[in-house]
Design a protein that fits this description.
31% of the residues lie in helices and 21% in strands. By secondary structure, the protein is α/β, with parallel strands linked by helices.
Length: 246
């Protein structure tokens, strides 16, 4: 019996545990999937030591970037992205990092296209945003990234005016704002400038409709949560684990 799991902090809401354990039950497998909720990444080595049957891990907030230093190697796409969400544990105990978020997002986005302008506003600059930016660049989108803090090449929320909002018809929330239990939170953008031409994508999937989505929908925009993306990336993670004869 193999074991798999999710590394993160405050991950009781997570989709992965239910998804994989349901998958194992449906396929009559004896494998299991467990949440490893740790307040500090220094506890990662203890997880590996105490769970010798671990064959694969997913990684979520806030460790998608910091986990890289714990790995033996990462694949080329993950290296370009600079963030990890899937780890293969080989029979020799080597840890190999991958990113399946970009595949999940690409498949989800393809189901929602087309939009008339290939300009995207990416809210957030953390680990989750890296896979989104990587995907959009591969699809030849012009990208504007938004942060609370002014940095070179980054737009601040205060700089989002009517012109910027109208020019960017794809807006993606890569921040944790609005995630359960903080469901009343939402990105501070000028929603009054969102139109029916906009496509609004929230990486959050709990709740299924965030305030970000609700406020945008009220302006006539099409909206999507991150559930399909999570399903696609989870299936891709499983393909990696299975392909390695795990």
């Amino acid at each position: 019996m193999a074991k798999y799991g999710l590394i993160g902090n405050n991950i009781g809401y997570s989709f992965s545990k239910t998804f994989f354990n349901s998958k194992f039950k449906k396929e009559e497998r004896s494998d299991s999937y467990e949440n490893f909720d740790i307040p500090d990444l220094s506890q990662f080595s203890e997880i590996l030591l105490n769970n010798p049957k671990l064959k694969g891990l997913n990684v979520t907030i806030p460790y998608k970037e910091s986990i890289i230093k714990c790995l033996d190697s990462i694949d080329s796409n993950a290296q370009k992205i600079g963030a990890i969400n899937t780890i293969e544990i080989t029979s020799e105990g080597k840890l190999i990092g991958y990113n399946t978020d970009y595949i999940g997002f690409k498949k989800s986005l393809n189901n929602l296209l087309p939009i008339s302008k290939k300009n995207a506003l990416v809210l957030g600059t953390g680990g989750a945003s890296k896979a989104i930016v990587y995907t959009l660049k591969s699809l030849n989108y012009k990208i504007t990234q938004v942060s609370r803090v002014k940095k070179e090449g980054i737009t601040t929320y205060a700089e989002l005016n009517k012109e910027v909002m109208i020019q960017h018809q794809l807006i993606i929330n890569c921040t944790p704002l609005g995630t359960f239990p903080n469901i009343d939170q939402y990105p501070d953008i000028p929603y009054q400038h969102i139109t029916k031409s906009h496509l609004i994508f929230d990486l959050t999937y709990n709740p299924l409709e965030t305030m970000f989505m609700k406020l945008s929908k009220e302006q006539g925009a099409r909206v999507s949560n991150g559930l399909k993306m999570l399903e696609f990336q989870a299936e891709e993670a499983w393909s990696i684990w299975e392909a390695k004869n795990i």
